[in-house]
Design brief:
Layout lengths: L2 H19 L4 H16 L3 E9 L2 E8 L10 E3 L3 H9 L3 E3 L21 E9 L2 E10 L7 H19 L4 H5 L8 E4 L1 E4 L2 E8 L14 H25 L5 H14 L2 H12 L4 H18 L3 H22 L13 E5 L4 H7 L5 E4 L7 H9 L3 E3 L4 H4 L5 E5 L4 E4 L3 H22 L6 E2 L5 E8 L6 H6 L4 E5 L2 H4 L7 H14 L5 E4 L26 H7 L1 H14 L4 E9 L2 H20 L7 E8 L9 H6 L2 E4 L1 H8 L18 H16 L4 E3 L7 H10 L3 E4 L1 H11 L4 H13 L6 H9 L2
Parallel strand pairs: 9-10, 10-11, 11-12, 16-17, 16-23, 17-18, 18-19, 19-20, 20-21, 21-22, 22-23
Antiparallel strand pairs: 1-2, 1-6, 2-3, 4-5, 5-6, 7-14, 8-12, 9-13, 13-14, 15-16
The structure holds phosphoenolpyruvate and magnesium ion (MG).
Length: 745
């Protein structure tokens, strides 16, 4: 790197710092900056464009263009070369600007066309703030060094903006002052108002300038050494976590040792940046590359780099997760993504969760569902837009999020929450009444659970028991297979807290999307139809056997109810049942006390079981329909694919006929049948299932009130006649007929 370039750059940064330190308004500062840059780089023009709103850039200061055009010239994102720099998040450098695609001549600037144009984005990790442009009359392409130097300056301008250096001028461009609304994907229903709590607190760089490069180099090197040793430690601690995990960590570690990454940051320091500003500059560039990259492997690697930069920034600034800042009241967690264990750590403190990435079937979504807090995933840019303490509204029903909302929006939202609370109050009055239809039939309402923390809902919701206890969470949130004794203690605690109400434990349903961190991953072309649940349990019997032993030991002296997931043919159920009975016999042989009574059930989650031999139904002590899976396989529509998951209606005649057949076949064998998929918690669907013969429904605790309320208003025999008539008439979808009939009751 040329000596003169370094000292020029440092000189320029020193002048910018003086500008920042000097008293004066924001406009004066911007004017000074453009003047200094044009002077230092020897260009005829230097201009700063800042975002007025998310789509519009405004010329805010210029040296060289007509002064009257300041605050007059506006460009849409993507419009002209300036708009293109902003959209792409990368520089445009040309010696012949008019020949560039998208060039737009702006006569308002009052100047001739400047053929040489170099524009670089002003950005701060993922936040686009504006564009910095230099232009020259002389037709020359700017060198790589010029581009690099201008990027360093743009970085400093971005940091100055973050520190509020441009005052009023900046008010309109501040990314954290406006309302931001985003439509993501609903992963757990419910509505909440609260204050933002960022999982990864935003690091604030208070000094982007580095006067003493030697000192900044030393700080950077020290931080990098700390980063590397912390990664080595992580790797050593998780050495038993499997080959895949190891590979990921090794690549990650390789990045931390990347010479080119370090060299770029060292060059930034040479040009006058502080160590943290240098890290952030490289992080910004990686982020904008990430936004453009479509190759999944490259995206993963850029994510790694992003994550490493965050760690390095936290080391350098001492900021981050452990800043000691107090969580606001009614915290709503905002994160790019989060693991299940981390989310579980926050527990019920949270009122809601908004993720920038994530998916409906992710582990975090499973935990949010267990915690019964609204969750919106794929909320674009939310992590960038949100600041700790901002007001935020999360509508998990619609998948919308409003950050710093207008008062009118907040008021309407509060009305919605109040209405829901009022309805819950009304339902609370039904708590001790049976779900008895007007025809006299009583439907048992059970709840679904997956955490110890769910158990108090048994009492508050009035559920008669736990119809589905998902046992995956205890496996998903650990770094190693849980020990039998720990599981037994947990299951026993669950039973204690159920105070005699029945709890149906479903054995481990992993595989598919639910991959255990310590399990070797198998790349399956279609994991939902792959090696999961009972298939995996029967092939790898050790874990299933251990879980069954834990369940037996937890149930000593009381009844045990076990249910096997995803049974697709009779032989699988037979084998699983045998395994359970062998485990019971073993306990007996060992002289251990036993449960008072063991009942074994199967979940019907594939259409094949509606056509199973009658002996299958006779073998089961009970059957439960897992409608989430059953529906996805019946319609061949992935339950996690937003494009198709709402496409087919539960109340279609064909699906109801399948359910009716399952209910009838269970009835013929005298085996009790329940429905435990999400649809059981939707009142219209619930009464329909009841009319078809399901006498037990298991759902989220919050759904019990609304479902009971409707059941108590309906004559199930009448509804059954309506359903039969509609099918006889050839109606393909019964929703309209059923809802109209219910409305008339
Ligand atoms: C289902 O498939 O309906 C079910 C209850 O199981 P899970 O949602 O855990 O797959
Ligand atoms: Mg299922």
């Amino acid at each position: 790197m040329a000596e003169s370039r370094e000292s020029n750059s440092r000189k320029l940064l020193r002048r910018l710092r003086e500008t920042l330190a000097a008293p004066g308004g924001g406009q004066d500062r911007l004017d000074d900056i453009t003047h200094h840059i044009a002077d230092s780089l020897g260009t005829d023009v230097c201009s700063i464009y800042l975002f007025r709103d998310a789509q519009t850039l405004e010329l805010c200061a210029t040296e060289g263009l007509r002064a009257e055009s300041v605050h007059k010239i506006r460009l849409r994102l993507g419009e002209g070369l300036v708009g293109r720099v902003a959209r792409m998040g990368q520089p445009i450098n040309t010696a012949n600007a008019p020949a560039e695609p998208g060039f737009r001549f702006m006569p308002e600037s009052g100047e001739e066309v400047f053929p040489s144009f170099l524009g670089v984005p002003i950005q701060r990790v993922g936040e686009k703030l504006g564009v910095l442009v230099v232009q020259s009359r002389e037709a020359r392409a700017f060198s790589d060094d010029d581009i690099y130097g201008l990027e360093v300056v743009a970085m400093v301008i971005a940091e100055m903006a973050e520190l509020g250096a441009f005052g009023d001028n900046q008010a309109d461009h501040q990314p954290h002052r406006h309302t931001y609304s985003v439509h993501g994907v609903s992963a757990q229903e419910g509505a909440a108002e609260g204050r933002v709590w960022l999982h990864e607190a935003r690091v604030v760089i208070t000094n982007p300038f580095g006067d003493d490069p030697a000192r900044e180099h030393a700080r950077l090197n020290e931080a990098v050494a700390m980063l590397r040793s912390s990664l080595d430690e992580m790797l050593a601690n998780h050495s038993a976590s499997g080959v895949e995990y190891d590979e990921v960590m090794q690549t990650y570690r390789m990045f931390a040792h990347s010479r080119s990454w370090l060299r770029r940051m060292e060059e930034d320091i040479e040009l006058g940046l502080s160590a943290e500003a240098a890290v952030e500059k490289e992080q910004s560039l990686a982020r904008s590359r990430l936004e453009r990259a479509s190759d999944p492997y490259l995206r993963d690697r850029l994510h790694d780099l992003d994550d490493l930069s965050n760690r390095l920034l936290r080391i350098l600034t001492g900021q981050g997760r452990d800043t000691g800042a107090a969580m606001p009241e009614n915290p709503i967690l905002v994160a790019r993504n989060i693991g299940p264990a981390e989310l579980l750590d926050y527990g019920r403190k949270l009122k809601g969760v908004v993720l920038q990435e994530g998916s409906v079937g992710s582990h975090a979504a499973i935990v949010a569902r267990a915690l019964a807090i609204p969750l919106v995933v794929q909320a674009e840019r939310i992590e960038t837009e949100a600041l700790n303490g901002d007001t935020i509204l999360v509508d998990g029903d619609l998948g919308t999020v409003h950050l710093r909302p207008e008062e009118s929006v907040a008021a309407a939202f509060r009305d919605k929450i109040a209405m829901q609370a009022e309805a819950q109050q009304r339902y609370a009055g039904l708590r001790d009444l049976p779900a008895q239809a007007t025809c006299g039939t009583i439907i048992e309402l059970f709840m679904n659970a997956g955490l110890m923390a769910d158990l108090p809902s048994l009492e508050s919701s009035g559920a008669e028991g736990v119809g589905l206890f998902r046992t995956e969470l205890q496996f998903l949130t650990r770094t190693q297979v849980p020990r039998r004794a720990d599981l037994a203690a947990l299951y026993s605690h669950v039973l204690d807290n159920a105070h005699g109400k029945p709890v149906i434990f479903r054995t481990l349903d992993i595989g598919s999307d639910k991959v255990l961190p310590y399990m070797k991953q198998h790349d399956e072309p279609n994991p939902a139809m792959g090696w999961r649940a009972i298939r995996l349990g029967l092939d790898k019997r050790g874990v299933l056997r251990m879980q069954l032993q834990a369940l037996i030991r937890a149930s000593v002296g009381r009844p045990l109810r076990v249910m096997f997931p995803f049974v697709a043919e009779m032989a699988e159920f037979e084998a699983a049942q045998r395994l359970l009975m062998e485990a019971v016999s073993r306990e007996q042989r060992l002289g251990h006390a036993l449960p008072t009574d063991v009942r074994v059930g199967a979940m019907i989650e594939t259409p094949s079981m509606a056509f199973a031999p009658q002996r299958f139904f006779e073998m089961c002590d009970f059957v439960s329909v897992g409608g989430n899976d059953l529906k996805q396989f019946f319609f061949a529509a992935d339950r996690e694919n937003e494009r198709v998951r709402r496409r087919y209606d539960t109340l279609s005649a064909s699906y109801l006929t399948l359910l009716e057949q399952i209910a009838r076949r269970c009835d013929q064998s005298g085996v009790p049948v329940s429905f435990c998929g999400e649809d059981a918690g939707r009142p219209i669907e619930a009464v329909t299932f009841a009319a078809l013969g399901f006498r037990r429904l298991s759902m989220r605790p919050a759904s019990i009130g609304p479902v009971k309320h409707l059941i108590r208003r309906v004559d199930l025999r009448g509804l059954r006649e309506v359903i039969d008539e509609a099918r006889a008439e050839g109606q393909a979808n019964l929703r309209r007929t059923i809802t109209d009939w219910i409305a008339r009751q």
